[in-house]
Amino acid sequence: MLNFDFYNPTQILFGKGRIADLNKVIPEQAHVMILFGGGSIKQNGVYDETIAALGKRQISEFSGIEPNPSYETLMQAVALVKEKKADFLLAVGGGSVIDGTKFIAAAALFDGEDPWSIMEKRGSNVSRALPFGSILTLPATGSEMNSGGVVTRKSINAKLAFSSRHCFPQFSILDPTKTYTLPVRQIGNGAVDAFVHVMEQYLTYPVNSPLQDRFAEGILQTLIEEGPKALANPQDYDVRANLMWCATMALNGLISTGVPQDWATHMIGHELTALHGIDHAQTLAIVLPSMLRIRKEAKRAKLLQFAERVWGLRDGDEDSRIDAAISRMQDYFEQMGVKTRLSDYALNASHIPAVISALETHRMVALGEKRDVTPDISRQILEMSL
Ligand code: NZQ
Ligand code: ZN
Fold it and tell me: Is the beta carbon of 164 within 6 A of some atom in ligand 1?
């Protein structure tokens, strides 16, 4: 096992009716800025419950944080936070709203350089942030219990990730009943994103970390079992609760302790979103199957473990077990309604060179757990995904 630091200060309030507990976790004197997206929280009652729970606290609000939140929009929110002198931020929504709130929290207290440098320096220059919490409405990203965020600068087609220990939510409220209104597309996206988060931290090479491996395999198996049930029976509380907790545990730092991490699929996926607006999870479903096929030799030991322990594949030679496991994974993504080929999103070979040059511009030229995923390998992966 590798050395590691594990730090996670986020309090989780999980279950039905927990929005009412906002009263216990936000100081009474706080001036709260509520941040949200395009309005789903007004249609499903989450907004009203939030306002009621905040009681007599001073409230301001900013709406319109879009999926794949843009720097342009977030800087408007930063200006409003400063104008209103809000001192506590409350993100209400999915990963985009929570990620956006992390950036706003850091940018509102950032002095000196241009706030875009937070993204260029991947958060290493963040030394403080406003306190914030979240109410999660879409289980997928894990943003509710981690310190990372992804922000898009539309004017230059750049989608970059940052993280800072100052950007953990103080608390996150996870009420599974608030996910009942998710469109089918977002149920599928959420399960696939969480699945791929686990794979980025699990499917590398062995370092004798049986506990982390079994945590990871447990999350994968639960996603495989529960995901289709959420599509078939959207109002099943237990299914939604299990999916929600899977997505949080998939990216809160626990399963990455002491193990190598990959993240090449995510980095290529971010470029596809920045250039073509494809949903985050859709990009992962396109890239990961080919990523594993092309890097089969370097990942052989873990692929065999994945085949046996996650998919129960024990018969046949090594290569056929590996191939079957990757195909089963791809079928699962499709079963969750997330298409797995570039051509499903109206992209063809002519679109690949721009993705490669974007990777080069963003210095994503030595990706993966062994830093051996060069632009040429990324190109082969995309060609295999056509
Ligand atoms: O904007 P509203 O109206 O709220 O609608 C949203 C949005 O259109 C809707 N939605 C959310 N909850 C709903 C709902 N609709 C009905 N009922 C509900 N309960 O869903 C749509 C998508 O929301 P979004 O927040 O964009 O989705 P997601 O949670 O998948 O977040 C994606 C973003 O997170 C980043 C991605 O890159 C992408 O920008 N990621 C963040 C990570 C992190 N912080 O650790 C890691 C991930 O790998 C990922 O990169
Ligand atoms: Zn992701």
Answer: no
**Ligand 1 and 138: CB distance under 6 A:** yes
| Contact assessment for residue 177 and residue 14, using Cβ atoms and an 8 Å cutoff | no
| 79 alpha carbon – ligand 2 mean position (Å) | 28
**Average pLDDT, integer, range 147-174:** 97
Backbone angles phi, psi at 179, to 5 degrees: -95, 0
Q: What's the gap in Å between 291 CA and the centre of ligand 1?
A: 24
Which residue in 297, 300, 301, 267 sits closest to 284, CA to CA? Answer: 267
d(CA 61, CA 36): 8
AA letter at 356: I
pLDDT band at residue 113 under the 50/70/90 scheme: confident
Q: Rounded CA gap, 58 and 337, in Å?
A: 42
251 within ligand 1 shell (Cβ under 6 A): yes
Query: For ligand 1, what atom is nearest to the CA of residue 39?
Result: 3
| Contact indicator for 105, 117 with CB cutoff of 8 Å | no
Distance from Cα 282 to the centre of ligand 2, integer Å: 10
Which of 75, 85, 149, 146 shows the shortest CA–CA distance to 116?
75
Residue of 50, 96, 137 to mutate, ligand 1, most atoms within 8 A of C-beta: 96
Q: What pLDDT score does 348 carry? A: 98
Q: How many residues does the chain have?
A: 386
Reported as a single tens digit per residue, the pLDDT across 123-132 is 999 999 999 9
Residues 153 and 169: their CA atoms lie apart, in Å, by: 23
Cβ neighbours for 87, distance < 8 A, ≥ 6 positions apart: 30, 31, 130, 131
pLDDT band at 83 (very low <50, low <70, confident <90, very high): very high
Q: Which residue's CA is minimally distant from atom 29 of ligand 1? A: 95
Per DSSP, what are the bridge partners of residue 162?
Answer: 149
Among 53, 202, 197, 65, which Cα is nearest to 139's?
197
Q: Ligand 2 centre from 197 Cα, in Å? A: 6
